[in-house]
Amino acid sequence: MGMSPASTSAPTDPGRLLLLYDLACAFATRLELDDLVTLVVEQCQEVFEAEGASVLLHDRESDELFFPFVVSRDPEVAAQLASLRFPADRGIAGSVLQTSEPIRVDDGETDERVYRGADEETGTTTKSMLCVPLTTREGTIGVIQLVNHRGGTPFPPDDEAFLVTLAGSVAVAIDNARMYATLRASEERLKTQVGSLRRDLARQDRFSQIVGTSSAMAQVFELMESAASTPITVLIEGETGTGKELVAQGIHKASSRAANAFVAVNCAALPETLLESELFGHRRGAFTGASHDRVGLFESARGGTVFLDEVGDMPATMQAKLLRVLQEGEIVPVGDNRPRKIDIRVISATNRDLQREVGEQNFREDLFYRLSTFPIRLPALRERREDIGPIAARMVETVAKRYEKRIDGITPEALVLLERHEWPGNVRELQNELERACALTRTGDPIVPEKLSAKVTGAPESGPPPPTARPSAPSVPAAAGASAGSHPAGSLGSLREARSAFEADFIRRTLETEGGNITRAAKAMGLSRVALQKKMKDYGLR
Ligand SMILES: Nc1ncnc2c1ncn2[C@@H]1O[C@H](COP(=O)(O)OP(=O)(O)OP(=O)(O)O)[C@@H](O)[C@H]1O
Ligand SMILES: [Mg+2]
To answer: Does residue 223 carry a pLDDT above 90?
Structure first.
């Protein structure tokens, strides 16, 4: 080789040292693949005096070579190349990839190895080329390719040696960048997962006091979630003890107002005049005994939530005043004539059928529509019997802790009885029942049927009869020997009584499921029609 013109670009050339230095710094600090490849090709193009420089990477899945980043003096050529993919055994780049050996082409126009496809795509002519492998521990991952040495001369042989050395570090850097990208991607994925799990947890936490896995309750939770995310006015409807207040609190806690007050007012508990000053406050001297100004509940709940419990019991004049609050967002304290703006969210609850109350003119229609923008109906416990087990378990745990007793859960027999009961008082009644059972149960024992009250165990002398197919006579015939109060509370009475009670209940339920059809019910129970009719007569059914 000797001292050819190529010696001007020997590895000790200051431009080359600068390139090495720049790249070393970049490898140490830049981890993004795009940045890295950009830098490498830009620098190579300059230092090696090439018209075009590119890094081609091997896509193992499709076994193709592609250009993750291209620089060219002609941006159009760059754009063409960027979209180009070709089989990994094609052309000079393909050979270098397969053999992991560098190739220098001095006369591209006659060299058979040059892939013409790329030239056709880009409308250029390959005159000279220098192509070296990018090799890592895992093998050759791609190539660096320089096209057309400026001035029309071939790339000097020294350039090849230098580019080979350089390619060694570039390959490692690309490998690292890829690893980094993989880690970044999995970090992003994990972040997303953690975020969604955290939201799930937060939701569980917010609504954690409300136990229920039935589909009816799942629907309630969904509605609560939607209600919590907006300031919409919510009306919660449900029988007594279904958890209306719990739901109202849950919505508040899950809403953006959670940090502010949740103020509950029982509209049925106060006489009209007191209710007004309680809600809106009053001015000193507004009425006898009003010795100083008083801030009303609406005002004290500023930025928070006011829960109007038993809103169906609100007197008519108060209904008109409440309507004003909802329509205008302002209150007028008693004895004052200046309305004040307030920012509150209203959630109300009722165990009445408000729509019917409207029909009977006991409740203002306009107020009803204002309150019930977003209604949530809470199902009665008998409509979601599968929730009884989980709710009971949670309650026993809580009560046991309070009593400082160890209660070993509820036996399956006792649970069957709890699930079968109609629960007119809903969750609250269930709670009372379990409180009593826990008190009666010795520490270390589970709750057994004997500790449940007669109304739950179905003992004949107490408890309301089931609401459907209510028998006119006592549900157990006198012949069974039941006499009111014949056994102590908590005892189940005789087996015969229990059997009769069960039989009556069983027949009643079967009739119910069979839509009252005696023939079908008899068949379902393996009885003759006559036998069933006799039993029904005995038990006073139908
Ligand atoms: N799904 C539930 N899970 C656990 N506890 C519940 C559930 N629903 C209600 N409770 C409990 O039952 C009791 C009654 O609930 P709450 O006071 O919210 O009912 P309510 O519908 O407001 O009743 P009322 O109409 O009689 O005022 C409370 O002690 C509450 O904690
Ligand atoms: Mg309530």
So the answer is: yes
